[in-house]
Each structure stands twice: as structure tokens, then as C-alpha cells.
């Protein structure tokens, strides 16, 4: 199982969540919301090769934390993964929209300058604006749009730009989300929990709740669960470059 977007450090007992992920041999991308959180969060994954820690600066914190951009650039060479980053166009985030744009553009430029990264990107109510920035920074790396909830035509633009998608259980449970997932290329879809922020069955989602997303994808793709899991593993290998490209490492 794969959880490509999870906030491990924000669970009340992160070590226990890590232990459970290890027990279940899960692949986890542990995203962070500030550069200051990266080292401590990386330490949680220490010795666990299937858990990777992304360095992020969440759009909702762009106003308060843009001073940490220099820390972001300093730490970036230490990881191949960036997230959570992006833009948020909901009304409560609009007062610091300019900070969000400044942070996101500077993150993308930094990724270009280090030769590209795998990025987990937030685009709620700002899909068009996120896609424009991605388009203007082609060397930033591989973009995984997390919990994409835009319109169908924006999804198509994202597909055309080469974006990937990480999909959680609740996305597959809503009609709109389901239709979007149905339009995503099967070879560019991964699963995510977005725990502990996202809710599942009335509680914080856990990384292993991606199992429900796998079931949803299996129904949608009309594949047995084993083949759905194989497709997702193949996608992960392609995304992180473990299959055919010996030039990539780490
Ligand atoms: Mn998140």
C-alpha cells in the first residue's frame, strides 16, 4: 500500500503511526507544512526505507512562514521530495494570496535550480493558478496534484502538463471526485490519506485507510485488487524513477 501524502508529524503519537506503517510494509510520503518541521519529521522515518520525508511550506502558512524560505533552499539538497506546497484560493486564505504566490514560485524556482524534485502540490480553489505556475517552471520536476478538486477541463490541462494525482478514500466517495478520478490516466494515479487532516469514517484518516481508496480504484478500473495494487506500485516506481533510469538515485 502507498500513502503519497500524509502528515505523520501531526498525529498525536507519530511513532506509533510509523510503527504501524512499517508493520504493514507501506510506502509513505511524509509531507511537512514548514521547513522547520523537516528535520524532526525526517527523524521519525529514520531506518525505515519505505518512508520518505518531503520538505514543504503549506500555502495556508505562507503568510506567517515565508521567512523560512531560505531554510527551505538550504535543506532542499537533502531530499528528493517536496510537499506540501501550492496555492489555496479559499476565502480565508485570500488575504495573504501574494505571500502564497511568492512562496510557491520561489519553491518551484528552487526545485528547478537543484535539477527537479517530486512535489506534492495543494491546489484547492486555485487550480488554474497552480497549473500556470507549473507550466512556467517546466524543470521543477514531477508534480503530484494532491486531492485535486478542480473542473474537468483543468484536470485535462493538468494531464497535458504531465501531472500525477494522489487520490484518497473521500475523493472516490463523492460523485464529483469519482468522475475526476475516472478521467485520470491510470498510470499517473497514486493513493493518499492526507491524514490526520482528512477524515475517514468520522475520525482522522490513517495511512492504511488508503486501502479503501484502492478498493474504489479497483471498482472504477474494473480490476481485481491485486492488479490494482500492482498498477499503483508500478506507478510509484515510475514516479520516483526506480524502474529504468539509472541516472537517478536516492
Ligand atoms: Mn495535506
Main traits of this protein?
11 helices, binds manganese (II) ion, 10 strands, disordered C terminus, 5-stranded parallel beta sheet, 250 residues, TIM Barrel, globular, 3-stranded parallel beta sheet, alpha/beta
Low-pLDDT runs: 244-250
Order of helices and strands: EHEHEHHEHEHEHEHHEEEHH
Count of β-strands = 10
CATH topology: TIM Barrel
Q: Helicity level, as a percent range? A: 40-55%
CATH architecture: Alpha-Beta Barrel
The structural class is: alpha/beta
Give the termini separation: 20 Å
Report strand order across the widest sheet.
4-5-6-7-8
Largest sheet: 5 strands, parallel
Number of helices: 11
Instruction: Write down the domain tally.
Output: 1
* Outline type: globular
- CATH superfamily assignment? Metal-dependent hydrolases
Bound small molecules, by name, code or SMILES, are: manganese (II) ion
> Strand fraction band?
15-25%
What is the CATH first-level class name?
Answer: Alpha Beta
User: What does the radius of gyration come to?
Assistant: 17 Å
Mean pLDDT comes to 95
